[in-house]
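Q: I'm building a small set of examples for a reading group on sequence design. Run inverse folding on the following structure and report the sequence directly after it, with nothing in between.
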């Protein structure tokens, strides 16, 4: 995509500076003047983990793209090894109640904004997509992944119960028996395995190729009336979004109780220690 053909804007500056992250642009949005397709790039070093500010920036970017009458959204990463490492686990560890409530509500809203977007959505998965990283990719309508990476929801492996809307994210892409086995095993798929079960639609050999394949998918709706398309998509997806649309408070309460339980906190401590020790060896 040529720089001269794109409009570039960034969100999340203020929030990011407050959270003392390394970069000042959590998300980058480029809109191709020719195609009208927006590329939304996650840009939170080192691994695009989703803290409160990141999820807010993602949600705000998506709303801004919809408001700008773009023709579609491609979600990707500025990191060439990691698409997203999922929720920022530091947000879940010994959380301060007010921030945890804001964090979980933001997760709910970000997921709903992406899952029910009026626009065609596609993910150019140019790195590992773990847990909520996989959930975000699954919430899109189309997925193109680069070889040599991994994707999946491994929550049960480290003692996390999978919330219903995350189950639904998988169910909107994969058949129920596959979802059941994958979630209960905490299965992480290689690119090849993901293609075999249709968790991803295509494999591309470079990020540019992945973006181009995503753009072709979005272009395939050129003949569809955008309003009719959006309302039909909403109808098709409403069932899986029902819990969060109708009872977000109940889902919030259940999740908060679980996250603040000693059982969860203990397994999180052990998991984080393991993750950190990897880099000390
Ligand atoms: C009955 C109904 C009840 C309903 C109850 C509901 C209950 C709800 C509960 C809970 C939540 C469950 C949902 C979970 C979803 C999630 O998304 S949890 C996040 C899970 N993600 C991971 O486990 C990813 C872990 N990371 C990695 O595997 C690797 O980092 C990587 C493969 C992504 C990248 O590897 P590499 O490039 O080698 O980088 P690293 O050196 O590993 O990482 C750099 C740096 O970042 C830290 N880090 C990595 N991931 C995270 C993260 N997700 N959060 C926070 N920090 C992370 C890592 O520790 C390194 O830090 P240091 O440099 O060592 O300080």
């Amino acid at each position: 995509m040529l720089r001269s053909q794109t409009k570039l804007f960034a969100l999340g500056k203020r929030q990011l500076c407050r959270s003392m992250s390394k970069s000042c642009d959590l998300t980058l949005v480029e809109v191709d003047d020719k195609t009208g397709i927006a590329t939304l790039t996650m840009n939170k070093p080192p691994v695009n983990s989703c803290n409160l500010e990141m999820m807010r920036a993602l949600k705000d970017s998506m709303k801004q793209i919809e408001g700008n009458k773009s023709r579609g959204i491609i979600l990707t990463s500025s990191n060439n090894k990691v698409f997203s490492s999922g929720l920022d686990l530091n947000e879940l560890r010994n959380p301060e109640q007010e921030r945890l409530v804001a964090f979980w509500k933001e997760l709910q809203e970000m997921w709903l904004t992406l899952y029910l977007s009026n626009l065609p959505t596609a993910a150019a998965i140019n790195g590992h997509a773990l847990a909520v990283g996989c959930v975000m990719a699954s919430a899109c309508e189309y997925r193109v992944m680069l070889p040599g990476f991994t994707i999946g929801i491994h929550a049960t492996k480290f003692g996390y119960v999978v919330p219903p809307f995350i189950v639904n994210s998988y169910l909107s892409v994969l058949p129920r028996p596959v979802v059941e086995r994958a979630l209960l095993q905490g299965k992480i798929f290689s690119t090849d395995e993901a293609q075999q079960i249709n968790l991803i639609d295509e494999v591309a050999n470079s990020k540019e190729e992945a973006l181009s394949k995503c753009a072709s998918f979005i272009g395939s709706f050129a003949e569809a009336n955008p309003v009719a398309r959006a309302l039909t998509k909403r109808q098709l997806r409403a069932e899986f979004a029902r819990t969060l649309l109708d009872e977000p408070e109940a889902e919030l309460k259940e999740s908060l109780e679980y996250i603040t339980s000693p059982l969860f906190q203990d397994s999180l401590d052990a998991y984080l220690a393991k993750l950190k020790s990897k880099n000390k060896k």
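The pocket of LGD76KDA is lined by residues 46-47, 49, 81-82, 85-90, 128, 130-132, 155, 160-161, 163, 254-255, 258-259, 275-276, 278-279 (CB under 6 Å).
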